[in-house]
Structures are given as C-alpha cells and as structure tokens.
From TrEMBL, chain A:
It comes from the Bacteria. It is a multi-pass membrane protein. Gene3D superfamilies: ABC transporter involved in vitamin B12 uptake, BtuC. The lineage of its organism: Bacteria, Pseudomonadati, Pseudomonadota, Alphaproteobacteria, Hyphomicrobiales. The chain crosses the membrane at residues 56-73, 85-106, 112-131, 143-163, 187-209, 230-253, 273-291, 303-320. This is Iron complex transport system permease protein. Pfam families: FecCD (PF01032). Keywords: Cell membrane, Membrane, Transmembrane, Transmembrane helix, Transport. SUPFAM superfamilies: ABC transporter involved in vitamin B12 uptake, BtuC. The keyword Transport applies. GO terms for biological process: siderophore-iron import into cell.
From TrEMBL, chain B:
Residues 42-315 form the Fe/B12 periplasmic-binding domain. It holds the Pfam family Peripla_BP_2. Belongs to the bacterial solute-binding protein 8 family. Residues 1-22 form the signal peptide. GO terms for biological process: iron coordination entity transport. It is found in: Cell envelope. SUPFAM superfamilies: Helical backbone' metal receptor. Coiled coil: none annotated. One of its GO terms (cellular component) is outer membrane-bounded periplasmic space. This is Iron complex transport system substrate-binding protein. InterPro entries: ABC_transptr_periplasmic_BD (IPR002491), Bact_iron-sidero_bind (IPR051313). It comes from Devosia crocina. Keywords: Ion transport, Iron, Iron transport, Signal, Transport. It comes from the Bacteria.
C-alpha cells in the first residue's frame, strides 16, 4: 500500500513538476535559484514566482479541498454519488459569478472568488432549507433531490443569461470549464484561510462520519446526534467546495472519484479516507494541470477537461476491477 | 401581313416594359451576386457593421441587428440611432417578427470571404432573406477601401456624398491620417504589436487578418507579424502562454479595445510587463475589426498618433 508518507512524496513530486513545467523552458537550476537566490530582474525567476508558484499553490489547495469535500459529503449523506456539484454548490457559485459578470460587469478573477463563495453558501443554504422541510428533516435522499432540483433551476438561469449575453459567456468561459491558469497569489491567499478552516472542521467530523457509516440507528444508539453530525459535515463541505470552486471554477470530477479510490485503499474508516483523499486529489488535479500545459503547445488545455479525460477511464477501470466499498 | 402585325405587337410590348426597367435598382454585393429591385430600396435592415458604414453617409436603416447589446457594439459608438429599431442584440440572433413588421426592401450585411458568410451569424441571412434580398460590401484588406465601397453603396441608395458633414468627416480623417504618417515617419525604429489579452493566454494578432492593421502598416507603422498559426488553425491570432508574454518585444503594444475589460485583464497579468513596451507604459488602443466610417477612424488615429508622438522608440534595442 502507498501509505500517507508515500502519497506525500508523490504530491511533492507533482508540485515540483508543476513548478518546472510550462510553456517557457526554464532549466532546473533556474527554478532552484528562483527560490534560494531570487533576482527580481531575472525574467525566469519572475515567472516562477508570479505564475507557476501561485498556480501550484492554488492547485494544491483546490485539490485538497475538493478531495476532502467529496469524502465528507459522501460520508454525511451516505450517497456514493455525492460531490459538491450534486448539492448545488458548483451551480450556486457559477450562478453568482454569471450574474455578477452579466449585471454588474465584473471582469476580474479576484472578484469572482467572493461571488462564487457567496453563491456556494447561498445555494447550500437553500438546498438545506428545502430538504429540511417536513417531519423527518434533512435526510440524505431529500438533500440529494433538493440539490439536483436546485442545480437544474440554477443551470437553467445560467444558460438563459449566457445565451442572451455572449459577452458574459466570453468572460466566464475559462472560469466555467475549471482552470488553474491565470490564478494569482492573491487568489491563493484569499481562499487559503477558508480551506484550512474547512479542512480542520472536516477532520473533526471524521469520527462522527465513521459512526454514521454503521447506519443511523447504530449511530443514534451510540449516543451520536445525527443532525449535528450532518450539519457540521455539510458546513465543512460548503466551506471547502465553495473555496475550491471560487478559485478554480467548477471542477466536478475530482470530488466524486478520489474518495472512492481512497476508500478502496484504506477501507471504510473516515479517519483514513479523509487524509488519503486530501493528498490524492491534488495529485490528480495538479498532475492533470501539468499534462494540460504541455499537451497542445503553444496553447493550454484547461484542467477541468484534462481531469475528466484522465480520471474517467481510470475510474471506470477501478469500478470494473473491484467492487467499490458500499457506503 | 401577319409578320408585320406581330412585330408591331412586340414593339408595343417592349414599349410598355421599358419605363419600368429604367427605375430598376441594381447592386453587386461582396458575394458576387447582383440584387435587382424594381425600385430603389427605402426601408433597409442592416447588420451593426453595415449600419456603422451607412449611417454617417446619410443612409438610415429602419432596423439594426447587432452582435451584442448596443452599448457594447463598438462599431455603433457615437452614432445617432434614434428612430432605428434594434431587432437583435446577440450574435446570430434576430427577432424575426420585428424584422417582418419593419417591411424591409433590402437587408445589408457584410460579406466575409474567409467564411463564405454574411456578417452577424450564418443563420441570420437565412432567417432574413425571405423578407428581402440581402447584399453588402465585402470585408477587405483595407478599412479605407471598405469605406469607399460603402460610399458606392450609399450613393446607389440615394445618399448625397457631397453633403458638408460627410466632406468634413473625410477631411478630418485625411488630416488624422497625415498626422499619423508624420508620427510614424518621425520614429522609423518604433516597433509595435497588436494583442488581445485573455486570462488564459495572450493572443498576438496577425496584421493580415485585420484590415485596420494593414492600413496602419501601409501608413508606416512597423507591426510585428507573429510566427505561429494557432492549433485551432485560425490565423487571426497566435496564442501564447503568459509565461512567454515577451515573445515579441516591442516599443508599443496595441490592445484590442472592443471591450475595456481586455486592457484590465492585460494589466492584471504579472508577466504583462515582461514586454518592454508594456513595462514602459507605451500601450495604445487597437480599434480591432470594428472601424467602418471616417469619423471613427479619425478619432482612433488621433489617439494612436498621440501615443506614438509621446513614445520612446528605443525601448527595444
């Protein structure tokens, strides 16, 4: 088995690859000296610091957030298909960004971040309120249904706006596919506190999720408060997924698949699934980003596309090779 | 006897037909097709770019279909559109009911030879052509040439090209062009490049794909021709990663001004200033693809001349 140290090494290797790979050929010793003897006049050093480092950091943060958010959501809803997109988080973020661009003429990524974050939170709140109606409260199935319905509604509004406003479509096109390109250090700094807080909260819920995975009745009989567990896990997921989607756009695939891979390796305990997901997701995301940078020179392929292309066959193979652990 | 009678009948018939032919309006469009109408068209629906060519020459369409919201349609900037119905505000979309209600005699768009299509979207011509024939000038290698084509079209539609306002626009343009030529002649070493800036990449424009850039070149501006044709196979731009923003170092950078956001996006890129011209702040507007009349051309040329006059031509050795 890979083990956490192995994964950490792999992640480090991908991060170094991300710093050394790009449209411009920069020799390894230049990358090294950019960190240990920075010269502001050297073009290569500026590219490392201004472009590749922020991009790598955003990739690490977003990847970790997506992996954790997916794992927590799958655990809390006990739904193998749960990921940030199914609870309306991605669409909510996209809707707010699209409205911001179409109505208020916002054009800069650093402003998108806040819009997307508020949108993700608002969507989750609405979805939760709808699901909580009725005597039995917000059950996983009602959450998933409310999320799917809200996603459909918000997607319809997004499409209506984009169809009538080509300028908006043009502005949000690159954000909507999911991309790490053009993300500045400001964006990494903007989202990192949220991702750190969300991650801390997610790890706090690990033990509770383990209880929940034995079934609601067992969990309840062990003295667990189901509603509180779901609420905490949901909050962690919104913070993580909201931050991720705001920084990189809606990247759907990572949050769904990585926890399944992690679960296949670690077994059912969330105390292991969570850290594995947190390390494996950025390996996939950053790795896909590096591939996207070199696959079609002189242009780049957005990471959202590469992740799906790389991830889907792998996921299919996994599903075919072994029975995925039931939730 | 019989032959004489039939000849006489033929003469009478011809005599009846001829006066009608004398009123015919014909125009051969950029697509090579000749439109023949039995009277000079009065009610015209025009694509935004064609409207920008015709309105300053005194031909006012009854309806305009634009590629975007009117305030974002650069070509129509500064034109008086009062009384003109807007029947489309998105690429390839037109309100067919409004168009029919306007009872047009003629649709005027621009012919794009590269795509073998009328401007405004391929479907538009199909949607509007049942209402009236479609014609227009061809997109060409010179905006000045296109404006002259618009003058010919406008004259055939009854415009008085000797009107003082039209003559004044043309004179202002000639003055602006002379000033531009003088400015470039004074700085023979000044190198320039035209770009579009996206969050994903910087796009270097091939002058051969933009009529106004070819004009500027012919008036002495030393514009870079980028090397690569991008992977999508279109040769309007070369797509370059922001890591290589200094691929074409120049003294002056012209930034696509169809949307003000493009320059903001450029300025927000940390590597924008890798290009020495950008680092020196020698950045000007590129009126990309939208100039269709002398007044707008004169305005844009004056802005460019001002930047060139103030520019340091030795930023790039």
């Amino acid at each position: 088995m890979l083990g956490l140290p192995g994964l950490a090494m792999a992640l480090l290797a991908v991060a170094i690859l991300s710093l050394t790979t790009g449209a411009r050929a920069i020799p390894y010793d230049m990358v090294w000296s950019a960190f240990f003897s920075f010269d502001p006049a050297a073009t290569e050093h500026r590219i490392i610091w201004d472009l590749r480092l922020p991009r790598t950091l955003v990739g690490l943060l977003v990847g970790a957030a997506l992996g954790l958010a997916g794992a927590v959501l799958q655990g809390a809803t006990r739904n193998p298909l749960a990921d940030p997109s199914i609870l309306g988080i991605n669409s909510g973020a996209a809707l707010f960004v699209v409205v911001g661009v179409a109505v208020f003429g916002i054009t800069q990524l650093t402003t998108y971040v806040w819009l997307a974050f508020i949108g993700a939170g608002a969507a989750m709140l609405v979805v939760y309120s709808i699901a909580a109606l009725g005597r039995e409260g917000a059950t996983p199935i009602k959450l998933a249904l409310a999320g799917a319905a809200m996603t459909a509604v918000m997607q319809a509004i997004i499409n209506a706006i984009l169809l009538t406003s080509p300028r908006t479509l043009d502005e949000v096109r690159f954000w909507q596919v999911g991309s790490l390109a053009g993300r500045s250090m400001d964006i990494a700094l903007q989202v990192s506190p949220f991702i750190l807080a969300g991650a801390a909260l997610a790890f706090l819920t690990a033990r509770l999720l383990d209880g929940l995975s034995m079934g609601e009745d067992v969990a309840r009989s062990l003295g667990q408060r189901i509603g509180l567990t779901r609420g905490l896990a949901g909050l962690a997921a919104v913070i993580l997924a909201g931050a991720a989607v705001s920084a990189a756009g809606p990247i759907a695939f990572v949050g769904l698949t990585v926890p399944h891979v992690a679960r296949a390796i670690t077994g059912p305990s969330y105390r292991w699934i969570l850290p594995y997901s947190m390390l494996m997701a950025p390996i996939l995301l950053l790795g896909a980003d590096v591939v996207g940078r070199v696959i079609s020179p002189p242009g780049e392929v957005q990471v959202g596309i590469v992740t799906a292309f790389l991830g889907a066959p792998f996921f299919i193979a996994l599903v075919r090779r072994r029975k995925l652990a039931a939730l | 006897m019989f032959t004489r009678l039939s000849t006489a009948a033929l003469v009478v018939l011809l005599a009846c037909a001829l006066p009608a032919h004398a009123q015919d309006w014909t125009f051969t469009g950029g697509d090579g097709e000749t439109v023949i109408l039995d009277a000079r068209p009065q009610r015209i629906i025009a694509h935004q770019d064609a409207a920008a060519g015709l309105i300053p020459l005194g031909i006012r369409p009854v309806g305009i279909y634009a590629d975007s919201a009117i305030e974002a349609a650069k070509a129509l900037e500064g034109l008086d559109l009062s009384g003109i119905e807007i029947i489309g505000t998105a690429w390839s979309e037109v309100d067919i009911e409004k168009a029919a209600a306007l009872e047009p005699d003629l649709i005027v768009a621009e012919w794009w030879d590269r795509n073998s299509a009328w401007s405004g979207g391929a479907d538009i011509a199909r949607t509007l052509s049942p209402l009236a024939p479609i014609t227009g000038v061809a997109a060409s290698n010179s905006i000045v040439g296109m404006i002259e084509d618009y003058e010919a079209l406008a004259a055939s539609l009854g415009a008085d090209l000797d009107a003082p306002a039209i003559a004044a626009d043309k004179a202002a343009f000639e003055t602006a062009r002379a000033a531009f030529e003088a400015a470039t002649a004074a700085k023979p070493d000044l190198k320039a490049v035209a770009v579009y800036a996206g969050n994903d990449a910087i796009y270097f424009a091939d002058p051969a794909g933009a009529a106004e850039l070819l004009d500027l070149q012919s008036w002495g501006l030393d514009l870079i021709t980028p090397g690569g044709v991008d992977s999508a196979g279109n040769n309007y731009f070369e797509t370059v990663s922001w890591e290589n923003a200094d691929k074409y170092p120049t003294d002056l950078i012209l930034v696509d001004n169809r949307s003000a956001a493009t320059l903001e996006t450029a300025l927000a890129q940390p590597t924008w200033t890798l290009n020495p011209g950008a680092a020196a702040g020698q950045v000007a507007d590129w009126p990309a693809f939208w100039l269709r009349n002398y007044a707008a051309y004169a305005r844009e040329l004056a802005k460019l001349t001002e930047v060139i006059d103030a520019a340091d031509a030795s930023v790039v050795p």
